[in-house]
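USER: Write out one fold?

ASSISTANT:
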Amino acid sequence: MSAALAGTLRLCQYHWRLLHQHTVPTACLSGSGQISEEVKKLLSLKSQLGIEPKPSKAKVKGDSDKAKENKKQSGEDGPKKFVLKTPKGTRDFAPEQMAIREGVFNKIIACFKRHGAVTIDTPVFELKETLTGKYGEDSKLIYDLADQGGELLSLRYDLTVPFARYLAMHKITNIKRYHIAKVYRRDNPAMNRGRFREFYQCDFDIAGQYDPMLPDTECIKIVVEILSSLDIGDFLVKVNHRKLLDGVFAACGVPDHKFRPICSAVDKLDKTPWAEVRKEMVEEKGLDPVAADKIWEYVQLSGGTELLDKLLQDENLTSQKKAVEGMEDIKLLLQYCEAYGITDRVSFTLSLARGLDYYTGVIYEAVFTGAQPALASSSEEEGSVGVGSIAGGGRYDGLVGMFDSKGRKVPCVGISLGIERLFSIMEAKVQESEQKFRTTETQVYVIAAQKGMVEERLKLCRTLWDADIKTEQSYKKNTKMLTEFQYCEQTGIPVAIIIGQSEIEAGIVKLKVMSSREEREVKRCDMLEEIRKVLASEDNVKSKPSISS
């Protein structure tokens, strides 16, 4: 059957070619529609034989053009262009920016050490199980790593959970430690607001069984000391208590199992209108609207001891044991803050919630309240700096027990400063003031008065370095004195030491004070002493930026 069909197909193809060439015998023609009839026969026979008809040249060209356009739009047309950039949520820091950051780190570390802390370090990644279940709704922001030989790993989200793991693993029951290191979060970055995916945290924690509120208040004192020393402008440390917050929820009719989800919603009040937070409570978390409205009556409140006195008269609230315990702690905390002289920087704020699940007692958060400086930017929106929280922390008495095989708890309290947010404020202030500052600490620059004195310069540099004097020289054999002096002025180097053949023969050097342009001859044996005198008198020359309002 198929052989007969194939034969008929070949005959029809022969007739079609003759018709197409207008050479078919007249006897084969039966009218002007003969060509179309033959085409129909061909298509019918091909269909019976299972042969797909070939597309027309016009259709093939159209499909080809469309495919090329799709590839062009998707970037697949030719080799893909590589865009050289840092990953989203990260950035590079230039020498000028690093000078600011190093100055900030130095002040923070000095404060931590002043309060008796030691330092530790932990791996930048942890077992995924170590971090799981510690951060509540923020767990979705953890960076998980690819499987590495059977171990499921994640980049650390903060420094607190690794610290708790460290305490449990090494059986440590008391320590006062600080830790400065990078952490990672899959957050939506806002670079101008100091919100990155990779950033430094500066943590100070006190672990151990101590009398109530003494370690907690010292943590607040440390925050006030650091932020005051950085001179970033006005700030406020908000304080609250997780037990008091839970007591408020219970008094308002929130079921126990909804405490943490509702707490997470309240935590958004610093950046989200109440209407949206209420909608989340009711529609997403299933809270009774009446309970939500009662919560609003409390979380609007802030103040000091007068607010605490008012809450202590609230029978609905004092009927909750947790609320009473929380208020007693807050009362003692405010009393100690007054003794430290920091009451004017502290605000008892009931809307403060801190979304992380591991907090169990006092919580606090420092916020920048000064005028918002503007970063140089191409758009007004990108240029504004609104950093929000610049430090936060609280008490987490149950976290270490989560890692201990017997559930043994180690009471802990601590604070964490967000260096990137502080840096955003300080960088903006520097740009605003157009302040110039040095990126190096070089104190002396060695200059040759004539050519061919490389070895003499090297000997002078060796003498100065051995005396712990920060020194530089040119890396060219033959230099121009004018160019060298200009370099000293541009980089803020306070002293230049000049040596030539006549100075070598006389056993002297020329010492030039760059700020006054005063130049004098000094004996080689007195050189170090004279340099130190000049450096001591040049106290107006700063090797690090001073950030002032």
